[in-house]
Amino acid sequence: MASADSVSLNVSSAASVPQGNNFTVDVNISGVTDLYDFQFDLSFDPTILQVTNITEGAFLPGSGATFFLPGFIDNSSGTITFNADTLEAAIPGANGAGTLIEFSFDASSVGTSFLNLDNIILQDSQGNLISSSTTNGSVTVTSVTVPTPEPGTFAFLVVGFLVIVAFGVFRR
Questions:
Q1: CATH of the domain at 39
Q2: For 109-158, what is each residue's pLDDT tens digit?
Q3: 62 in Cβ contact with 21 (< 8 Å)
């Protein structure tokens, strides 16, 4: 049986994202030999995150033409199911490491959301299963703080405004 070192989630932008921002999560693979097709699901906390887009990663298309199926997004239950990609011709599979899929999220609420891969199926060009270890992830959405001007800054602005007004009155 063929194997892959790991299938992992990688929060591309940061493990901490300000509320209201968009960010991406890559699902990466490493140490794989002859990857011909894959399928998996992703789960997350829908009270904190909302999925906005699913994009095919560059790893499998680097070996030939592909047929990509972005998963079914259910932002109510926090699942993306049946994400799949396959090479189209009778060719050897992809070797090495790279990105399988990129998920785009909106950080809708403050908190920490799990990001879990489930139902992972990896196959080689002969239809044999490829075993792998999985690393799940998480992302923390932080509150956005609006800076308030310091009293000294506000006083400086008021004095500057009064000087401008006085200068205008004095010139007349």
A1: 2.60.40.680
A2: 999 999 999 999 999 999 999 998 888 889 999 998 766 666 666 666 66
A3: no
CB 120 within 8 A of CB 135: no
CB 22 within 8 A of CB 105: yes
Among 49, 25, 43, 15, CA closest to 100: 25
Domain count, the chain: 1
Sign of the CA dihedral running 17, 21, 24, 25: positive
DSSP H helical ranges for the chain: 151-171
Could you count the other beta carbons within 10 Å of the beta carbon of residue 63?
20
Helix, strand or coil, per DSSP, at residue 170: helix
Q: Domain limits at 88?
A: 2-171
**37-77 residue pLDDT tens:** 999 999 999 999 999 999 999 999 999 999 999 999 999 99
